[in-house]
Specification:
3-stranded antiparallel sheet, 17 helices, 434 residues
């Protein structure tokens, strides 16, 4: 609390915080602005009906990331998902396209180029996803069981205007996120997701209170606090691999001779494996929506691979397996042991008792695989919390106290606090130097 008061008393930091809060307020206000072309009253009725009946896994996740804007079919219905998807695709393409990897190694100029590609891809995905949503709404598959007319005017100009509005909403969200990153505090996109998820907490807690009573509600609060403390501990945990640099002469100056370390987090992959696993599990459900409801395979998919208010051991087993697989897969892409070993050798660095070159690369792979084993189990346990809540609390599968939501809340919160603290220290040092 003392640090927060000091931050508000610092003019530069206060301006950044107020700028960030202002854009977050604009984002939350846009969530409730309906997209022109939809019947707002009918959409609200169908959205309430869908929320009470439990939605699909992918629908629940996108709606959570958009702060409830998806089910309301607002101008921000797509939320940050197109940008997140585009960022992940561009990052994965570094492995496939050598040009992308070369841009990544060029520094600031290459990063700016990759950012531009991400923006273009975000716009393309925005057009694709908005078209898909409007098509599902028109066909009646978006709100299953709701027979109200949601698009009164289905002329081509109206439909194009709806696609354009939702796509522009995505572009506006992307712009606000980048402005927060540049002129505010913290990572803009992460803070937008943080705001969307945090906005769903009161409704989820109210649902537990209404359905289960105050005793279960109190138990949920206690469990939530314990889980959050444990997650903070794990998210802050890291293995520090010591690195020493040999002394070398460059001209008349001596360089090197210092000691540092390579930090390896327990949860090196972050929330990406959970998003990947949820996306893969959404594919069978998407395929079953186009099949005959009476077909055997469609009924099996709806029973075992689609969650509403029921628990499925098949779903849980597949979900955990995918999370573990993508945790190792994504870490192998982001933590390039060969590149780190080559850079250490180039600048005269070495790990004590480990030879430079290939032995260093093998040692780094060995360490990251052992640590990631614990990280993958941690992710799987956290993501099983909403599934357990299905059984004991009767909540929907997008219960916020677990999985993606808590990982993002904890991660973004810690990162933002660190940035505010760094700004405070910088201001304090400037005052001493003056």
């Amino acid at each position: 609390m003392n640090s927060f008061v000091r931050a508000l008393r610092t003019p530069e930091l206060r301006a950044k915080i107020l700028f960030t809060l202002g854009l977050l307020a604009v984002y939350r206000a846009g969530v409730f602005v309906p997209t022109p072309g939809f019947d707002a009253s009918n959409v609200m009725f169908c959205a309430d009906q869908a929320a009470s009946a439990g939605g699909s896994n992918v629908m629940g996740m996108i709606n959570m990331f958009s702060g409830g804007a998806l089910l309301q079919l607002s101008i921000f219905a797509l939320g940050v998902m197109p940008y997140i998807t585009a960022s992940i695709i561009v990052q994965l393409l570094r492995v496939v396209i050598p040009r992308f990897e070369a841009l990544h190694k060029e520094g600031a100029s290459g990063t700016a180029k990759l950012t531009q590609y991400t923006r273009y891809l975000t716009i393309g995905l925005g057009v694709l996803q908005s078209t898909t949503i409007i098509t599902l709404v028109r066909s009646g598959n978006f709100f299953v069981g709701c027979q109200l007319e949601l698009v009164p005017d289905q002329s081509i100009p109206t439909l194009l205007m709806m696609v354009l509005t939702m796509t522009v909403g995505t572009v506006l969200i992307m712009f606000m996120g980048e402005m927060i990153t540049e002129r505010g505090i913290g990572n803009g996109m992460s803070l937008l997701i943080f705001t969307s998820i945090a906005s769903s907490f009161p409704g989820s807690f109210a649902q537990v209170w209404k359905l289960q009573g105050w005793l279960t509600f109190s138990l949920v609060i206690v469990v939530a606090l314990v889980v959050m403390v444990g997650m903070v501990f794990v998210e802050q945990s890291q293995r520090r691999i010591p690195v020493q640099y040999a002394k070398r002469m460059v001209g008349r100056r001596m360089y090197g001779g210092t000691s540092t370390y390579i930090p390896v987090k327990v949860n090196q992959a972050g929330v990406i494996p959970v998003i990947f696993a949820s996306s893969i599990l959404a594919l069978p459900q998407m395929a079953s929506s186009f099949g005959d409801p009476e077909a055997g395979w469609v009924q099996w998919v709806n029973t075992h691979l689609v969650l509403g208010f029921s628990f499925s051991w098949v779903y849980a087993l597949v979900y955990v397996t995918l999370i573990v697989f993508f945790a190792f897969f994504y870490t192998s892409i982001t933590f390039n042991a060969e590149e780190i070993a080559d850079n250490m050798k180039k600048y005269g660095g070495f790990i004590p008792n480990v030879r430079a070159g290939k032995p260093t690369e093998n040692y780094l792979r060995y360490v990251i695989n052992r640590i990631q084993s614990a990280g993958a189990v941690y992710l799987a346990v956290i993501c099983l919390i909403p599934l357990v809540a299905l059984v004991y609390l009767g909540t929907s599968q997008d219960f916020p106290l677990g999985g993606v939501s808590l990982l993002i809340i904890i991660g973004v919160g810690l990162d933002t606090v660190k940035q505010i603290d760094a700004k405070l220290q910088q201001h304090h040092y400037e005052g001493i130097l003056r």
